[in-house]
Amino acid sequence: MKSINITSFILLLFLISNVAMGQSRQVRRGNSFFEDGEYFKALEMFEEARDAGEDLSVQTRIRIANCYYELNNIDEAFNLFMELEDNLKGQDLFTYASATHGFGFYQGAIDLYNECLDKGIGNPAQIRELIRSCEWALENDSFVTDFLVNPSELLTFGQSFGIQYYKNGVVYSSSSGDSDEVDRYGKEFLNLYYSPIQDGEIQDQRLLSENLVFDYHVGAIAFTSDEKIMYYTRAVRVRGGGSRIKIFQVTYDGSEWGNEEELSINSDNYDCAYPAVTPDDKYLLFSSNMKGGHGGTDLYIVERRPNGRFGQPQNLGSRINTFGEERFPFVSDTYDLYFASDGHLGFGGLDVFKAIHQGGTSWSDVENMMKPFNSNKDDFGYVIDPNDPEQGFLSSNRIGNGGTDVIFYVEPRSDEETEEGSSEESEMAPMGGLLYDETGQVVVQEKEQTEPDSEPEPEVDLSQFPDAFSTVVNSTFNGTPIENARIVVKDNSNGQIVVQGTTGRNGKIHLIIPDEYRKEGQTFEISINKGDDFKGKSMIVDIMELEQISQNGVALTPVFDDVVLDDIGTMVIPYRGETITDEGRKILDKLAVYLNNNPNVVVKLNAHTEARGNKYNNLLTSQKVAEKAEEFLMTKGIDGQNMIPRGYGERYLVNNCQRGKLCDENKHMENRRIEVVVWKMLNQ
């Protein structure tokens, strides 16, 4: 018995060493960083391994998705999790559900949350609240037409938030744009800046005070009514080598800020952050994760005493605080409380809420501020202009992929705009020289009119654009790499071939993108083909989407011979609106007969749309119609385990009718289809 145990132990060590040797140094370092919570560094290592040509395992790709989620790049996390859905379990499945919620795909999130409940993953009570929140978002997807929320004209460098009115301008946290020092999330450290407002226009920024420059982030500020005391949040080292977020105060002597003091409410055992002062200066509100709260971080209120000390913090109670995060309180002149939360019913991420003052230190009647104040991303830090209660600022990461917080301006809609109503296709209107497409991406930055040749054309920083397209091509049937698959990348504007090549034995390819194509707004048509053995694929992508495709890989569906599945490998089911056509139902009838006769076959029902209208709505429509096809087949006796409905929106077009191109209706409708893809075979 002893000799058998020793032999087994040696064999186990051998297997472990082989697994370790199968991972590159970059992946091993990435795993180490990941386990230490250093997600930015972990992502750097994983991507370095991928760029070096390493075939990343499913588990590593799941960790990459988690890194994006922890770095608040929800869109990228959602896309990666969606590709890996069949491999997710436990906490990874719950994180995918949360990313789907944050992406704004509420019905998909409901399905995933229910799957978590069925599998005993997570806290059931909290998950039911999240499901309720998604259901609420589906029922309340409309705009408050009285206000506009647009990107502000503040000249910042990528990251800025936590704005407050001060004297004749505003103070906020922002990065300088010229520092190589970053935090564990890859963000440049923030300092406090001041921008004056003249004739309603925000002027250039300047550092608020040289005395308030620290080695770590500083922000989330509040002023007393006389503007002589300022409270702010910053991270500090504590005994034991860790760090805590604490609130400090400084005083203004008429010329400079100084005399920093740590507030007595702080502790080395918990965080205190996001201070707010009531308009009568009697109380300080803040957020903390101290013991005894209702969830992650709760809102507290504490009395400001004349001697500069503070009373005992009091939790604002369950009417305000939830199992989630409550942050960024602000008390208006009418004593109404505005705050951010991801625990109350909302659209995803942090939403801005309003609570009515009930006297003393009590607030209730919490209500969501609705769109356009809120979005499916993080929206927080709402403050009101002291000279005009209908104007203000808030912070949000709703632009782009969700990785950057910026400051938005809130203003009332004009009478003419109110009469015209607001579009539910867009959550913001152009402002400050910026134009946005329906996904919220900046597409044009208008320039002020200047004299010809007044300034030289600035050089384009090519490092911000991908210099190569690297990916792996696999079979949808069994996941094996496809050798000699031909990939052609064309300039979508003129059809000119940019670069082309074939995959190697491992299904991988690395194509260099010429510098002249590395520019803002560049789109490519990418086609992947492998003779008659596989069904070819074509897609229209923006240059910034190349990295996403590189990470996710490309899968081609085999054309099966008559011994296996040639009866269904080419089935295409048309639909109109969200309704499957009569012709489509006939094709589904044939598919049902086949699946009933071959219960070991699992198919994907991949739904696609044309490239018109709102991209997000197209994604929703495609998912809905894929599920309708699944429901139809279930009425024909097909087991749910034999079908996987997936919506891909407008990503995969079958013709050249990409976004913005004039095509007749029939051509657009060719792209509105459900494709039947053989996914795998069940063990018989």
From TrEMBL:
The keyword Protein biosynthesis does not apply. GO terms for cellular component: membrane. Keywords: Cell projection, Cilium, Flagellum, Membrane. Transmembrane segments: none annotated. It comes from the Bacteria. InterPro entries: Bact_OuterMem_StrucFunc, OmpA-like, OmpA-like_sf, TPR-like_helical_dom_sf, WD40. Residues 560-682 form the OmpA-like domain. Pfam families: OmpA (PF00691), PD40 (PF07676). The keyword GTP-binding does not apply. This is Flagellar motor protein MotB.
